[in-house]
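Hey,
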Amino acid sequence: MILLALHREGDRRFRIIELQDDGSRAYIEGDALYTHVTGAGDNLLAYVEIMRDALADAAKVLLLGTAGGALATELSRRRTEVTAVDDMAWAFVAARRWFQLPDQVECVHADALAYLGTTTRRWSGIAVDVFRGVEIPDQFLTTEFGALLLRALEPGGVIAWNVADGPASWTVALVARAMRQIGLVPQLIQVADDEWSNTVVVCHLPPQTDLGVGAARQRCASGDAQPHR
């Protein structure tokens, strides 16, 4: 194993490593593996494949949480227009230098929640991959965050949300509940990567939204949406 880079930000510690047996590269925070790709930048993690496939029909994708950019790279190579948002600017540097992130991926250095609260743009697909270690911060496990996602999603669009736990976990239950409370029906897809277990929560917004969805959009836009846990 070769250590390519070591980065610290506050109490967070990140490593970029290269495996000598096959030349693959990994992006790791603490003990949590975020990204694993071949030397050519081809993804090696099953959960990324599931998210990519869920977003395959989306022409424009917003990616919240970047790490090594494996999902952004996979989508961009399929001619998807990708906007990647991360609160750590170094993630974009690492993704471009060691993980083959294409130049055409738009990189936005911002907090995901703050960005959704201010942007007027909309996407046909949204990928949520936000973590601190293996935990999703509490502020994302709310109806308020769900309503912001909904406001940024085009009719007929899809949300793919990665959770680093099994489908019966409390975190998956919170994500699924937040999606149901904004009028979406969550599908849970369990993924296994060696000793790692993930669940991808997939939700589709119908081309014609109902009054409940419209109300959720309106509450979010007016600032009336309240977090639920």
